[in-house]
């Protein structure tokens, strides 16, 4: 066994044991004549790629946490199974990244110690399985949840400057095992190739900030006003969604708009409900088991009032915040019923907040009667018309004529040949770039984006100048006094230069010290 400076024999033996899954003493290594073959180097390269691949998935996993509640709802709709997939996702990802990272660190330490890289077949098998699992995760993401690729692009506006620093740091540390390998190998061609490849990668990284753009690289006095908060079905992290308790909790979070979903019962009473079936957010399976899968609109108002619309929140715990509810809130939760639109309008009027809603289901044969019933209830409620943000597209012209004071909100971007200018748009946050948001703001068009739960995403949209965001996490975003980070361009330039210069110095030190 080689005995390089700075690497004691027991340490080298332990490292080799962990990497190769067998105890190889100096005598055994000398007798077997162990050395690193081309195949061993190929497995090391594969290990490096798996680690990078898994690290990339970890980044995606953190990004999609913002939208994972939608995925939970989708799975429940398909399989009638409720599970917080965020916990499973993070645990599985943490196991994969930890395993590949430990193996990579062992391999780099062995290289520095001049030891053979004899990866055991068990590690090889597990690495292949890791690569297959991560590949399957990316494939599933692309097929079933393609909009998350756009979320990842948006996330780079928040993380780009810091990812650059991290990658430069990681590649700089890689100079030590690389220098050790180059000085030990006798193949000149391989030395030249690795040096050129490493140099090209580092030069590209040093120049990468030229292509990094972020709306949060600006002077503090240029920061737009904080976006207003729109409570997505109220405050669904603090109370059962689409209930009066959820509306009150949203008011406590200083939301300016209560966003909800309206359906109309079989006897013409508009009520708050998101799903076409009642199974997720009520105890309909216990009260009306034979009708549990029926459309929500097939129930009359008397039957709907018999349902418990709160206990599911404590049983399924759709958000981690449920565990921290007080005893008073828990008791209040179990008392929640399905509220009528009339009750919600009265609560909104008393709290002086606006209300915005979707009218479901849009493809129903009686949709016009749904519009008429909803419009009638709103006009009779006495709520000021300017506090009503009308989202449904169906029969919009009729609504404009009967209620000209409603704020008309459109779920699309403006058209080039728009007959009348749009004043309010409501879109998924993935559908608008920072440049479009700025342009709409300059043209006095109010932009509301949904659903925004994570502070990093809220920060990017804040810096971009969005008017408001729809959120599940109003209690979190309420506490934000400024974006997570805000850097003047001059400061960012200085950080860029310092990081790159330090990297160059460390790389030179590594190659000179190990020579």
Automatic annotation (TrEMBL):
It holds the Pfam family GDPD. Keywords: Glycoprotein, Hydrolase, Membrane, Transmembrane, Transmembrane helix. The keyword Amino-acid biosynthesis does not apply. It is a multi-pass membrane protein. The chain crosses the membrane at residues 41-65, 85-113, 125-143, 163-183, 192-212, 493-514. Its main location: membrane. It is found in: Membrane. GO terms for molecular function: glycerophosphodiester phosphodiesterase activity. GO terms for cellular component: plasma membrane. Residues 227-481 form the GP-PDE domain. One of its GO terms (biological process) is lipid metabolic process. Belongs to the glycerophosphoryl diester phosphodiesterase family. PANTHER family: GLYCEROPHOSPHOINOSITOL INOSITOLPHOSPHODIESTERASE GDPD2, GLYCEROPHOSPHORYL DIESTER PHOSPHODIESTERASE. This is GDPD2 inositolphosphodiesterase.
